Amino acid sequence: MRTPVYELHIRPMFSATDRDHMIPHGMNLWEYDDVVEHAEHIVDRLEGGTMPPTALGGPWPQEWIDLFKRWKEGGCKRLELGTAQFEVVRSPSAITVKATGTFPAPGYQGWIQLESETDTAKTYVLYMEPPDAPVAGTADDFAFKERYSSSDTRTLFIHDSTGVQEH
Questions:
Q1: CB 13 within 8 A of CB 60
Q2: 60 alpha carbon, distance to own chain's centre
C-alpha cells in the first residue's frame, strides 16, 4: 500500500476553518513542520472526537483518521521541489510549459502542477515524490509538459527548488 504524502493526502483534509481554529493554539495545520511537531496531539484529538469541533464541521470520518495515522507511522512523507530546465513555448493556440531534467535518484516520480492562480498570475510547481524505499539503479531523465490556452495572458511563474521565477 502506498505511503500517504502530506501535500497529496494530509493537507487537503484540513479546511481553512480547521486551520484558523488551531492557529491561536500555536499550530498551523497548513504548515508541514507544525503538523509533524504536533502529530501525536492531532491523533489524540482526532480519536477523541474533539477535532474538528462539532460546531466547525464535526469529527473526521474514521478513514481520514486512519489515513493520518498511517502517514504519521510511515515517517510523515512529503513531496520535494524538483529542479529542471524550463522552456515556455507560446503558439497561436496554446502556451506550453516544458520541464526537463533528471530525477534526484532512482524510483522518483514527478510532475508539474498548478500551485496557485490570481487574476494577474499563475504559478506552476515542479514536484518530486521520493520512493517509499530506496531503489537500486540510476536516476531516470524526465520531460513534463503542461498546456493552457494562449488567450490566457496572465504572468507565468514557476516554483521549483531554486525558488519562484517569472517566465
A1: yes
A2: 21
Neighbours of 145 (CB within 10 A): 12
Give backbone dihedrals phi and psi of 94, rounded to 5 degrees, phi first.
Answer: -155, 160
In this structure, how many other beta carbons lie within 10 angstroms of the beta carbon of residue 26? 9
- Which residue is associated with the grid cell 522518483? 108
Residue 8: closest CA among 69, 72, 71, 61: 71
pLDDT tens, N- to C-terminus, the chain (167 residues):
789 999 999 999 998 888 888 888 888 999 999 999 999 999 998 998 877 877 777 788 999 999 999 999 999 999 999 999 999 999 999 999 999 999 999 999 999 999 999 999 999 999 999 999 999 999 999 999 999 999 999 999 999 999 999 99
Closest CA to 116 of 124, 106, 107, 127: 124
According to the 3-state scheme, what is the secondary structure of 72-133?
Answer: HHCCCCCCEECCCEEEEEECCCEEEEEEEEECCCCCCEEEEEEEEECCCEEEEEEEEECCCC
**What is the rounded CA–CA span in Å between residue 146 and residue 144?**
7
| 157: β partners | 123, 166
